[in-house]
Amino acid sequence: MANEAKQKLLKLVAAADNQLMIIPVGKDSDGRTVAEVMAYGKGEADISFQEELLKDGLAKTRKSGVVCPNQLGFEKTQEIAKASKTGVWSQEKRN
Question: What letter would DSSP give residue 33?
Answer without folding.
Answer: E
